Amino acid sequence: MNSNWEIVIGLETHVQLSTASKMFSDAPTAFGCEPNSQASVVDLALPGSLPVANRGAVERAIRFGLAVGAHVAPRSVFARKNYFYPDLPKGYQISQFEIPVVQGGSVGFLFDGALRAVQLTRAHLEEDAGKSIHGIDVDGRQATGIDLNRAGTPLLEIVTEPVMRGAAEAAAYARALHALVVWLDICDGNLQEGSFRCDANVSVRRPGEKLGTRCEIKNLNSFRFLERAIAYEAQRQIELIEDGGSVRQETRLFDPERGVTRTMRTKEDSHDYRYFPDPDLPTLVIAPDWIERVRVELPELPAQMAERFARDYTLGEVDAAYLTQSRSHAAYFEACAAACGQPKLAANWIMGELAAALNRAELELDSAPIAPALLGALVARVADGTLSGKTAREVFAALWDGERDVDAVIELRGLRQISDGGAIADAVAAVIAANPKNVDEYRAGKSKALNALVGQVMKATGGRANPQQVGDALRAALAGAG
């Protein structure tokens, strides 16, 4: 990013709530059904139909609000957001405007090895629109079809303050938010099915200047696409301004094949939607005892679990945050720690070797080919001195490739660490005799020369000698020979 410019990012995330029925009707929300088979008269606002708010959706909103430390409004209002789009059958969307159900709060996450938090503006309940399906062949002609199955599906739109300053930071926040809503069991988190979709508001400015004109990039359902779209859009705006142009407020789409954003429509402001309270829906009243019941039923939250990990497993704050970034990470760590009895060492292997292997293979932890108990067995062999760091990594590679018995790999490949004092003493004597220059440097006070000698002993023993014993034996031998 050009240091003469600052990028300003705010995200609006549409989280599809995990209810069996829609926001204002009893129509089902199952994915993948025949087009237009799940749109009820209420979803279409046909004459005589009346919407009724889904209690389960409201409760999920309360659950989210409590989890992020927000204010859950005791009274909130549903409004009509008026606009025309082919897949919006009513001509308006029922949403919340002036008084949302969730106000404020923050989402914490780990970024660049440090703990961060993004402040939320609000989270409000609304219904989804339908879906336009382009490229349908009708008698040899290309046409667009409208599938209204998704119309009326309950959404929680979560809006941040414009506090993020980079594409990677925004993607890290989105991943953390995704993990949280799945953790809370309010959303299935299926990105491919559109259960979690981000809109990115991007602007640029020179440091110290007021906020620039923003553009909104719609419907990003991939963290990688989100990061690429923001980076491209920021650079586009910078180049436009530096060439003497000005940024126009608009809605844009991201083309992942070309890696560019393109204009979708001129961006509307709130007054363009002509919001007004929906006359068919009463004020949403949330009693204090309902909020408290939801609070009591909340699962252990990531921040609470991180505190427990730090306390019970003697982990650092950053390590605990990493291991509680998702339910799968937390469960993997606890199972691995239980298998080896060495929680700190288990954490190091999960955050180090395992994380690197997953990154190289572009896999999520849920798809790791090494089960937590198997990694625990490997960690146990490091802890008891059977394996050195080098040979442990060799065993890890074998496990990754499909081996399922740590001890069998150790014996078959002859990887057991040499801890026999006599064998190490013989190797040390040979290395001292073969490296007089390093010996003289060590005696002259150059401590780094000892590292070179340790490396030679490790090389001579195929990396199997116990490094601690090698260092001790070298110091003793050199002192005695002096």
Structure in words:
The chain folds into three domains: 6-278, no CATH class; 300-412, no CATH class; 421-481, Arc Repressor Mutant, subunit A (Orthogonal Bundle). It has 482 residues and is an alpha+beta fold. The mean pLDDT is 93. Helix content is 40%, strand content 21%. The strands form four sheets. Strands 1, 2, 6, 7, 8, 11, 12, 13, 14 and 15 form a ten-stranded mixed beta sheet that branches. It has a three-stranded antiparallel beta sheet with strand order 5-4-16, with no helix packed on it. Helix 5 (302-312) crosses helix 6 and helix 7 packs across helix 9 (372-383). The longest helix is centred in the middle third of the chain and has 20 residues, at 223-242. It is elongated.
Summarize the structure.
With 482 residues, this protein is an alpha+beta fold. It has helices spanning 55-67, 167-183, 223-242, 288-297, 302-312, 317-323, 327-340, 343-361, 372-383, 389-400, 406-412, 421-434, 436-443, 448-460, 467-481, and strands at 6-16, 71-72, 75-76, 79-82, 92-95, 102-103, 106-111, 114-127, 131-138, 141-147, 154-160, 196-205, 215-220, 250-255, 260-266, 276-277, 284-285. The strands form four sheets. Strands 1, 2, 6, 7, 8, 11, 12, 13, 14 and 15 form a ten-stranded mixed sheet that branches.
